[in-house]
Amino acid sequence: MIDRPFNRRRALLTLGGAVLAGGLAARGWAGGQSYPTAPAMPADAKVFETILTAAPHQRLLANAPSDILDYAADGPVVLRMRQGEWLRAKMINRIHEHTSIHWHGIRLPNAMDGVPYLTQPPTEPGESFTYQFQPPDTGTFFFHPHCNTVEQLGHGLAGILIVEGDEARPHDADLVLAYRDWRIDEAGKFKPLFTEAGAAKAGTFGDHRTVNDKVQPVYQVPAGGDIRLRFLNLDMSRIVDLGVVGADAWLIATDGNPLPPQKLKSWRMGPAMRADLTLRAPMTPGTRVQIVNYYAAQPLVLAEIEATGPTLNRPPFEPAALKPHHIPEPDLATAETFPLRLTAATAPGGGNASELPPDLVLPDGEVLRYADALCLTPNTFWSFNGRSWPMQSHEVLPPPLVTFQRGRSYIIEIINQTPHMHPIHLHGHTFKVLSSNKEEIMPHFADTTLVAPKERVKIALKADNPGDWMIHCHIIEHQDTGMMGIFRVA
Ligand SMILES: [Cu+2]
C-alpha cells in the first residue's frame, strides 16, 4: 500500500487551504472547487445505459479464488455500443475507498473524464456518479479508475468499451483479447502491487499472465472466416510486442484509430495501448493460430484461436480498411513545439528549489515545507520537465505544465532522458505520432505512445477540447511516483 503518513498534516492543511490554494494551485480544494459542467443529453438521444458497480468479488485466476475488485464477478465487463449513441453509465462505489471511471482514449467533455479533484469530486464508498457522453469515435477503448490506480487497477478494476460502426465489411467473428498479469501466488493471494524497486525501474511485474483472465485461452472461430481481434494491453507495467503465428494478420487500428491495413510483423505496445487486427482463419478445422508476445526471451503464447467447421467459403482474403475517423488534423505548418522531457525526480518534488514558495505556517504554528505540503515523499521517482506530481494528494493540484490555446495545433516532442520505457498518455485528445529519432515511424493516431530510452518522439494534436487534462505515464507505478501533470486547453 502506498497511503502516505501525512494524514495529520493533510487535515491541518485543509484548515489552511485558502492560503495554499492561492499560493500553489490554480484550482483549489475539494471543498471550494468548481468542477466542469456535465454535457446536456438531447431529449431524442439514443442511449446505451448501464450500471457499473465497483465491488469486491472472488475470481478464480490461479488454484484458489482471488479477492479482486471489478465491475462484475465473472470477468472483465465488455460494453459494446454503436457510434451515435450516448453512453449513460451509473458508477456505484461499493469498494473501501473513493473511486472514479476514466474513459481511456475517448475524446469526451472534460466533466466526464473521471479524474477526482480535477474534473469531478471523488465518489466515496456508498456513493454513485453518472457519466454521460456521446463517444465521437468508433474503436476499442477501455475504462478504469483514476485514483490509487496501483491498488484499484492492480486488483482488477477495469472494463472494455467498444464503439461499433467502423466496419465497411463485417467480420465472421470479433474477439476481445484483454491482456494483463496478476500479482498473485499459486494460492491466488495478492503480493504487494507496489514495490520501490519496481516503481523506480520498469515497474513491478505480475507473474500470472492472462487474457480475459484466463491463462492461454483458446477461442473457436469459423474455419475460413474473417476474424477481427481487438487486443488490449491492460497490464500495469508489461510491454507487449504483439505478433500472430499461423496466419497472416493485418493491423487495422491503433488505440481504436483506423489506419490503412498494414501487414503485421509485430506491434510494440506499452500498457494501455490497443491494436485491432484482421486475419483469415485457417481453412482446416482444428488448426490453431497463436497470439504471441515477442517482447520476451522466448516468444510467449498469450492466447490461441482454433478454426472449427463447417469451413466458410469466402472470396480470397483482402484486409478491408475500417471507416476513417474524423479527428482534426494538426496543422504542422503553424504548430508550436512543446518539449516534454521524461526525467527522474531530482529532489523531493523534483522541482527547482528557487521556484518553490516559502515555507507555510499552519494554524497551530507548525512550519511546513512545500514538499511536505504536496505530500512529496522519498518515493517520488519521476517527473516531467523536472516537475513531479504530488503523490497521493490530489487535494492540492499543481499548476499546469503548459497551456495550449484552444483551436491551435501543437507538436509535443517527448524526450526520454531515463533508462526506462514510458508509455505516455494524454487525456481528452487523440494525437498523431509523427516521428522518432530512433526508427522509421508509420504516422498513426493514438492516445498513448511508447517512448524508449534516449528516444525523442514527436506527436502532434489540435488542442480543440477545452479543460484541464491529465498527461501521464501509463506504467502505473511511474504515474503514481511523479510522472504525471496537467495540460490546459483554454
Ligand atoms: Cu513511465
What does the largest sheet look like?
6 strands, mixed
Instruction: Using the alpha-carbon principal axes, give the shape.
Output: globular
Strand neighbour order, sheet with most strands: 10-9-12-17-14-15
CATH topology of the largest domain: Immunoglobulin-like
Number of domains: 3
Determine and state the CATH class of the largest domain.
Mainly Beta
- CATH homologous superfamily heading of the largest domain: Cupredoxins -  blue copper proteins
Strand content: 35-45%
Q: Which regions contain 5 or more consecutive residues with pLDDT less than 50?
A: 1-32, 347-363, 368-376
**Which ions, cofactors or small ligands are bound in this entry?**
copper (II) ion
CATH architecture of the largest domain: Sandwich
Roughly how much helix do the residues carry, as a percent range?
A: under 10%
Give me some keywords for this one.
490 residues; globular; 7% helix; Immunoglobulin-like; binds copper (II) ion; 6-stranded mixed beta sheet; 3 domains; disordered N terminus; single chain; mainly beta
Descriptive notes:
The protein is 7% helix and 39% strand. It has helices at 7-15, 17-24, 149-154, 196-199, 370-373, 476-480; strands at 47-60, 65-70, 77-82, 86-93, 102-104, 128-133, 139-144, 159-164, 173-182, 208-211, 218-222, 226-233, 240-245, 249-254, 257-263, 267-269, 274-280, 288-293, 300-308, 336-344, 360-361, 367-368, 382-384, 402-404, 409-416, 422-426, 431-436, 444-446, 448-451, 456-462, 467-473, 484-489. It has three domains: 35-164, Cupredoxins -  blue copper proteins (Immunoglobulin-like, Sandwich); 173-308, Immunoglobulin-like, CATH 2.60.40.420; 336-489, Cupredoxins -  blue copper proteins (Immunoglobulin-like). Mean pLDDT is 88; it is low at 1-32, 347-363 and 368-376. It has a six-stranded mixed sheet with strand order 10-9-12-17-14-15, with no helix packed on it. Strands 23-20-25-30-27-28 form a six-stranded mixed sheet, with no helix packed on it. It has six helices and 32 strands. The chain is mostly beta strands and 490 residues long. Bound molecules: copper (II) ion. Copper (II) ion binds next to loops.
